[in-house]
Design goal:
- With 151 residues, the protein is mainly beta.
- Helices cover 0% and strands 48% of the residues.
- It contains no helices and 14 strands.
- Strands 4, 5, 9, 10 and 14 form a five-stranded antiparallel sheet that branches. A five-stranded antiparallel sheet has the order 7-8-6-11-13, with no helix packed on it. Strands 1-2 form a two-stranded antiparallel sheet.
- It is elongated and about 45 Å long.
Length: 151
């Protein structure tokens, strides 16, 4: 069963998307690799999900949470939706065992464009009985210099 969350812009994203019966209670291990840049209140993120587990992930949701509130209006890519004042959810799509998924690219605008740093937290939301081998979040601090911070 899918649970749909509708963001502030009315876009819906599946959270805890159902996995096929073969993957129920299977171990997965999604990690995210990419980079973040920030300048003048705009945060640019590119990330790719990597499945370090032995089971295929049909779909999962990556949660991107910022330490600062986002501007009210955002132009988010398909498969992504605003969840709350500082969080965006994006579908990962299918990720093969021991493989990578599709790249997710989004650009968000902070409510306070004069801020000089923001912390971004990245983690997965699970459903359908999947269990992550290494649950937890990744965090990266981006300074408003336009430099690329890799994670």
């Amino acid at each position: 069963m899918r649970k749909w969350i509708v963001g502030a812009l009315g876009a819906a994203v599946a959270v805890g998307a159902a996995l096929p019966a073969a993957a129920l209670n299977a171990e997965t291990g999604l990690a995210y690799h990419g980079y973040v840049t920030m300048g003048r209140g705009e945060v640019n993120v590119r990330l790719t999900p990597w499945n370090k587990g032995m089971s295929r992930v049909e779909d999962a949701t990556v949660r991107l949470r910022w330490s600062k509130a986002l501007a009210d209006e955002q132009m988010l890519p398909g498969g992504c939706a605003r969840y709350d004042a500082s969080t965006v959810l994006c579908r990962t799509g299918a990720v093969l065992p021991m493989g990578e998924g599709r790249e997710i690219h989004l650009r968000v605008h902070l409510a306070d464009t004069s801020t000089d740093e923001v912390r971004m937290e990245i983690d997965s939301l699970w459903g359908g009985g999947a269990a992550d081998r290494n649950p937890g979040s990744q965090q990266v601090l981006a300074l408003g210099t336009g430099d690329r911070y890799t994670f």
